[in-house]
Amino acid sequence: MHECCVRNDMGYRMSLTGRVAIVTGAGAGLGRAHALYLAGQGAKVVVSDLAAEAANRVAAEILAAGGQALACAASVTDEPAVAAMIKRTMEKWGRIDILVNNAGVLRDKSFAKMSLDDFRFVLEVHLIGSVICTKAVWEIMRGQRHGRVILTTSSSGLYGNFGQANYGAAKMALVGLMQTLAIEGEKYGIRVNCLAPSAATQMTQGLLSETSLKMLDPRLVSPGLLALAGDDAPSRAILCAGAGHFACANITLSRGHYVEDTQDAGHQVIASWKEISDRTDITVPDYGFVQVERELADAGLTDPNVP
After folding, report:
1. Residue 204: predicted pLDDT
2. pLDDT tens across 57-77, in order?
3. Which of 135, 148, 202, 263 maximizes the CB count within 10 A of its CB?
4. Does the predicted model carry a pTM greater than 0.90?
5. Which long-range contacts link 111-118 to residues 24+ away (Cβ below 8 Å)?
6. CA atoms of 71 and 49, how far apart (whole Å)
7. For the CA atoms of 221, 227, 230, 233, what is the dihedral angle to 10 degrees?
8. How far apart are CA 121 and CA 69, in angstroms?
9. Which DSSP string corresponds to the chain?
10. What pLDDT is attached to residue 214?
């Protein structure tokens, strides 16, 4: 039995007490802030980082503050190293409740100047690294019928940003991964969400003013983890966080417009663009097939749920 929902001296619920969390890329910046925050909320934290020294340093901070931590040096793209980290965690604490996929890199250049190697490398770390780590804990979470997976997306993926085609592609891919994993994990008590942080880290140095960087302290993002990792966590949420501001982004679907199957169908699409793109009745679909159901219904199928 987990000691959930106990209260600290200030009366707030320590809802992560007894939970075990893994944070990747936790040796510095946002990952360090995440690890320290989760530990402060009562979680036992695996501090995972490519650099052993950095992981050990953050784990020592947690231990010095009275928390529980385990340092693991591992690249998220190294399957044997990730497997070894999961094994150590299970041997020490017997379960894994929370995975924060935070590790990342940048290789910014305009698409015209970007090499395919730089494109592949960024996708490998952000997307494939998150897949490797999530796959490594998935069966554990299914077996214990409880899990919280947080994938780190970005406004660059959601809305685009010059010079970040590789980064944006990887970050939007993580939203797609979240959408499906949340559906597949639902009956096992696994909730999967995305966090889109704005934080001053090594990855943002030189991109913003000093004043902006001070306001974008990584510590101000990490409280969002409590909402995404706690017992009452949502699933399939995209939480945008920075400078103490929190908002939710959504992938929406407009009501759309039916175009008849005629020779001038393409021209009808152009002529109907205002109706097609109208956001008045936008929805957030519960699953991908909602698009097909709507299309078939507008085409005249009375019961689109029937194949």
Report:
1. 56
2. 999 999 999 999 999 999 999
3. 148
4. yes
5. 111/165, 114/165, 114/166, 118/166
6. 8
7. -140
8. 30
9. ---TTEE-TTS-EETTTT-EEEETTTTSHHHHHHHHHHHHTT-EEEEEESSHHHHHHHHHHHHHTT--EEEEE--TT-HHHHHHHHHHHHHHHS---EEEE-------B-TTT--HHHHHHHHIIIIIHHHHHHHHHHHHHHHHT-EEEEEE--HHHHH--TTBHHHHHHHHHHHHHHHHHHHHHGGGTEEEEEEEE---STTTTTTS-HHHHHHT-GGGTTTHHHHHHSTT--SS-EEEEETTEEEEE---B-------SSTTHHHHHHHTHHHHT--TT-B--SSTHHHHHHHHHHTT-S-TT--
10. 85
pLDDT of residue 202: 57
Active-site residue identified among 12, 37, 159, 167: 167
Structure-token pair, residue 190: 């696994």
> Which tokens is 4 given?
């959930």
Six-digit token string for 24: 């990747």
CA atoms in the 13 A half-sphere facing the CB of 70: 20
Burial class (CB in 10 A: 0-12, 13-18, 19+), 212: middle
What is the phi/psi pair of residue 300, to 5°?
Answer: 110, 0
**Single-letter residue type at 189:** G
Q: What is the rounded distance in angstroms from the CA atom of residue 95 to the CA atom of residue 91?
A: 9
Q: Distance of alpha carbon 63 from its chain centroid, rounded?
A: 27
Q: How far apart are CA 259 and CA 265, in angstroms?
A: 6
Q: What does DSSP say about strands 6-7 and 13-14: parallel, antiparallel, or unpaired?
A: antiparallel
Length of the chain measured in residues? 307
Q: Is residue 167 annotated as part of the catalytic site, yes or no?
A: yes
Looking at residue 180, its amino acid is: T
